[in-house]
Design goal:
The protein has 4 helices and no strands. By secondary structure, the chain is mainly α. The radius of gyration is 20 Å and the shape is elongated.
Length: about 170
């Protein structure tokens, strides 16, 4: 592997292209949500005719926006990073702090994936839907589980890379 810099993914380019495509879809979805909200406001306040279920679509759409974009953001190492203690910790301290953060991230994300999978199965079994439009909820929980699962896998790849490069940071 070549040196990693911020924004340069550690995983194979074909997988990055898939994650990036999901992130672009997320952006298009965000644009659609923005247009829906603007239209709903116009209809409600100027035509006195609210759009039925627009709030449900916005709520579910925002979940999709975040979960579709999160794995690509992680793969490109573009999350916000606070490095207040980096100089005080030194190279070894940063190595262990990064390792601890990634291990804890994998642990928490794994718990959330597990719970979302169970919730998706539960909502599928009971055919849970939204109130106004009767949209099924299980696909939303499934997308959350996939998004967080991919993020956990990316953290695992970063841990492997961290040990291969002996903790040297190239950013």
């Amino acid at each position: 592997m070549s040196e990693q810099t911020i924004g340069q993914p550690l995983i194979a380019s074909r997988w990055v292209r898939v994650l990036d495509a999901a992130a672009y879809l997320s952006g298009i979805l965000l644009l659609g949500i923005m247009l829906l909200v603007a239209t709903a406001v116009f209809f409600r306040y100027f035509l006195h005719q609210p759009i039925l279920g627009s709030q449900e679509i916005v709520q579910l759409g925002m979940v999709l926006v975040v979960m579709l974009a999160m794995p690509s953001t992680a793969a490109h190492d573009q999350h916000i990073r606070v490095d207040l203690l980096d100089k005080a910790l030194g190279e070894t301290g940063r190595f262990f702090a990064d390792l601890l953060g990634r291990v804890l991230g994998i642990f928490v994300l794994s718990l959330l994936v597990w719970r979302c999978v169970l919730k998706a199965l539960d909502t599928y079994e009971y055919a849970d839907t939204t109130n106004m439009l009767a949209l099924p909820l299980w696909p939303i929980y499934a997308v959350i589980a996939v998004g967080m699962g991919l993020y956990a896998l990316i953290l695992l790849v970063e841990i492997i890379y961290q040990f291969k490069t002996r903790g040297m940071r190239h950013d």
